[in-house]
Amino acid sequence: MSVYIFGISHFLLATYYSRHKITSALSNSKHYFALAPLALLGLASYTTSFSLVLYFGLHHALSEAYLVQRKVGASLNEQSMMTLQTSRFFMQLSGYILLVRNDPFFRIEQLNSLALIVFVLSSLVFVWQMWRASDNLSLHQLIKLFYSEAMLFLFLLLSLAFPITFLQVVFYHYTFWAILPFLNFSIHNKKHIKPAVIYTLLTVISIIVLIKVSPLHHPTSTRYFRFEYWFVLQSYLHITLSFATSNANPGWLIALFNRSPKAVAKV
Fold first, then answer.
1. Neighbours of 229 (CB within 10 A)
2. Residue among 188, 64, 75 at smallest CA distance from 133
3. What is the torsion angle, in degrees rounded to the nearest 10, for the CA atoms of residue 54, residue 72, residue 245 and residue 61?
4. How is residue 162 annotated by DSSP?
5. d(Cα 183, Cα 186) in Å, to the nearest integer?
6. Could you say which of 53, 204, 211, 246 would form a disulfide bridge with 242 (CB–CB 3.0 to 4.6 Å)?
7. Which tens digit of pLDDT belongs to each residue from 77-94?
8. How far is CA 176 from CA 40, 136, 148, 179, in A?
9. What would the pLDDT profile of 188-221 be if each residue is shown by its tens digit?
10. Chain-centre distance of CA 179, in angstroms?
11. Average pLDDT over residues 117-134
């Protein structure tokens, strides 16, 4: 239940901080050609009960692969940059499938072998590109830029001894995005203080309200199923919206909605 609470809080905050992007996309008719298939994708995924585990995996892989790219771009040419981004995405997606291979809600044995092959190949390409980038980057910069891949390797090793579930990966995803606004926070920069305080207050208030309306406060089966329903519904909605509003996406996807790929979304 705690994952559901943090998840819905994550959805609400993401929608709030993306509200200008959503309004801009809906108010510009030239975006409708991109929004229409996106809306159909989300609707079809939900109504056909397409695996939420896989749908989230796509969202998670994009977030991990495309969130931190700007500093690397200065040390790689355009083709190498594209290769690095693509290899990161396939490594994150295949690694995610391998992580949740023992989850009872996701037992697709046929995907495991394919995911392992893709993971090995994409990892080799990624390591090669990272080595090329290392000529112009310090060890500290490399760790900061590629920590998500280090975490992935660590979790994969842990999964050999302890089965990792879908909800555990989801909780990691929520936790990372919850602390993301503070990664570049500086107490000496007055411009950072107000947004940080507002973000913290919104996070705390949303969690308190959600606890109050959740089965944790009123433990009934009806309330539990209703809460779970909202979590699933908002998961599909949030993931679908992220393709249009998040800057943790490929440049061509960002360009569909005329947004700068240089900006990184807060939430």
1. 10
2. 75
3. 10
4. S
5. 9
6. 246
7. 667 677 778 888 999 999
8. 29, 27, 10, 5
9. 566 767 777 888 888 888 888 888 877 777 777 7
10. 13
11. 84
What number is the average pLDDT over the span 5-15?
A: 83
**Per-position b or e across 25-46, b if 16+ CB within 10 A of its CB:** beeeeebeebbeebeebbeebb
The structure tokens listed for 208 are 């308190």
Q: How far apart are CA 45 and CA 111, in angstroms?
A: 19
The residue type at 71: K
End-to-end C-alpha distance for the chain, whole angstroms = 22
Instruction: Give the confidence band of 184 by pLDDT, cuts at 50, 70, 90.
Output: low
Q: What is the CA radius of gyration of the chain?
A: 19
In this structure, what token pair is assigned to residue 25?
A: 């996309």
Longest dimension (CA), the chain: 59
Question: Distance between CA 253 and CA 246 in Å, rounded?
Answer: 10
